[in-house]
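WARN retry 2 of 3 for item q-0093 after timeout on previous attempt; input resubmitted unchanged.
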Amino acid sequence: MKLKHIFSAIAGLVLASGLTGCESEKDLNIIEGELPIKTSTLYMVGDATPNGWSIDAPTPLQTSADDALTFVWEGALYTGEMKLCLTTGSWDAPFIRPLVAGTEISKTDISNAKFGMHAGDPDDKWRIADAGKYRLMFDLRHWTMSTTYLGELDAPVIEPIQTDVLYMVGDATPGGWNIDAPTQLNKVSQYIFEYEGALSAGELKACLTTGDWNAPFIRPAFGGCKINQSGVESSEFVFTTNPDDKWQVEVAGMYKLTFDLEHWTLQAAYLGEMPHTDKEPIEADAVYIVGDATPNGWSIDAPTQLTKQSQYVFVYEGELVPGEMKACTATGSWDVPFIRPAFGGCKISLSGAESEEFVFTTNPDDKWQVTEAGQYRLTFDLEHWTISVETL
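OK item q-0093 returned
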């Protein structure tokens, strides 16, 4: 009997010990506050940073001598956006972000502001409002960041740019955004390159090589620098990878552009309106619509095909949803000419089309904007270059 009591006592102790262990495990799973973000590397990426949007080679921050989980950056930041990542090579990884999208980094210093970290949406980023030299500090132990504005950017050192070729790229140019086949300028002398011809309303920048968006580009001294009938808003340009500033052609027409690669200037002369050309009927066996307003979305390999009613008349009857669309006569390539509205954002609604005229061109990449969902009949007349929109 005594032995039985001894076993009972032991069993009781084991049970009590097990319960205590369970309670201890529960206590260990309760996390108060934020755990430190443990990493040996931290990078910033964005058009405001020196290395731009290159996720394979983003701009690294340095660890502080006082704390291995505090990272510091001192250097140039440009107007634009940025976020931070722990590793390179993946847009799907978690990013360090502001708690409020578009939080400004400016000449006004920030002290110990909280940040967040998550993957996916919402893709919140900081916005650098003032270009300049900054000191950034990210404390991964306490999830806070601080900024100090150190002063204006250094003026660029202007050295003659040596090149045998110069190209321009953008939806304002004949070659559009095709970096593999941009519009080539004529070399007039060692440092002078000229273009004389049509420019559409849109953006442009210039480059020395094809096929590489990560190379330095010739850009205006500030983003959105205007080109119009009065010429160019500012003649100065820069040669840099970031920020991704571009000239803005405000008025379509015939222009003469002169790039001086010795003195880093651009001259623009407006030569007049684009010459009027009679519209020849567009010969096509098929017409398709593509875009997020259409049933098949942005699939260029399987866009929505229209019904051919006669040699030049093609009709679509069916649903459209709010979004964009354009039309094409062949599948499988974004580089072919598209049927587009006469101006970007031309509205299609239950009341009809804002304008019945269309163009057939590679650039600019103008699209119709469907503003109301509904059942529509679209009639494309390829002989007279018009679109008719009715509701069913």
